[in-house]
Specification:
InterPro entries: Glyco_trans_29 (IPR001675). It holds the Pfam family Glyco_transf_29. By secondary structure, this protein is of the alpha/beta class. Helix content is about 35%, strand content about 15%. The protein has one domain: Glycosyl transferase family 29 (sialyltransferase cstii, chain A, Alpha-Beta Complex). Strand 2, helix 5 and strand 3 form a beta-alpha-beta unit.
C-alpha cells in the first residue's frame, strides 16, 4: 500500500485495506508459544517497587502507549512490543525503540503511516475490541485488550506489572478515573476472573 493509499483507507474507514498492513493475529500469537511475558501498565505505584529485574528477566516485555520508565529499578529497561492507542512523539519512539508495534485502538484515524508500515505491525481487529467492550460494559483499556489477546496464545506465563486499575493514577498523565472512559472496577473484576480461570496469569504486587 502506498502512503496515499493508506491515508485514503484511513479516511474511508477501509478496515480490510488497513488490515492488509498487519501480520495475522495467529502469527502474532504463535510467536508467544512457551514464553514468559511481562505486560507493563502505567500505574504510578509501580515507580515505588523494585520489579525492574523481574521485568527484564521475562522472555518478552510488552509496554503500553507512552510507557514512562522513571527508573530501571522499578520498570526494567527492555521494550520488545509496544501496544498503542495513541500516536507516539518521535522522542518516545526513539526512547522505547520497540521492534514491534501493536495498534489496539478502534480509532483508526489516530494510526500513523510510520507505525502502520513498521516491521511486524499488528492491527487489533475491531470485532475483538467490541466483544471485550460488551463484556466489560465499558470501553476497555489498552491493557485489558492486551490481556485478552495474550491469553489466547500458548504462552507459559503472563505477569502484570503496574496494574492497580487507576488507584494510584497513571504515570502518563494527570487525569482522574472520572475523566477517562473506562470502568476500572469492572476491569479489576474481569482480570481477577481471568486469573482464577487461567493460572498462567498473575498480578505482581
Amino acid at each position: 500500500m502506498t502512503r496515499l493509499g493508506f491515508h485514503i483507507a484511513r479516511l474511508m474507514r477501509d478496515e480490510a485495506g488497513l488490515a492488509r498492513l498487519s501480520v495475522p493475529q495467529g502469527q502474532l500469537l504463535d510467536a508467544l508459544e512457551g514464553k514468559s511475558v511481562a505486560l507493563i501498565g502505567n500505574a504510578r505505584a509501580l515507580a515505588e517497587t523494585g520489579h525492574g529485574k523481574a521485568i527484564d528477566a521475562a522472555d518478552l516485555v510488552i509496554r503500553i502507549n507512552r510507557a514512562p520508565m522513571p527508573s530501571p529499578d522499578s520498570h526494567g529497561t527492555r521494550t520488545d512490543w509496544l501496544a498503542l492507542a495513541v500516536r507516539l512523539a518521535e522522542a518516545d519512539r526513539s526512547r522505547l525503540g520497540s521492534p514491534r508495534l501493536l495498534w489496539m485502538s478502534p480509532k483508526r484515524k489516530r494510526l500513523d503511516w510510520f507505525s502502520a508500515t513498521s516491521p511486524g505491525f499488528y492491527l487489533h481487529p475491531l470485532g475483538d475490541y467490541c466483544a471485550l467492550r460488551e463484556s466489560l460494559a465499558a470501553p476497555p483499556t489498552t491493557g485489558a485488550m492486551m490481556i485478552d489477546l495474550l491469553l489466547r496464545s500458548r504462552l507459559s506465563s503472563l505477569t502484570l506489572y503496574g496494574f492497580d486499575f487507576f488507584a494510584s493514577l497513571s504515570l502518563s498523565g494527570r487525569r482522574t478515573a472520572q475523566q477517562v472512559p473506562h470502568d476500572f472496577g469492572s476491569e479489576a473484576e474481569w482480570v481477577a476472573g481471568c486469573a482464577r480461570a487461567d493460572d498462567r496469569l498473575s498480578l505482581a504486587p
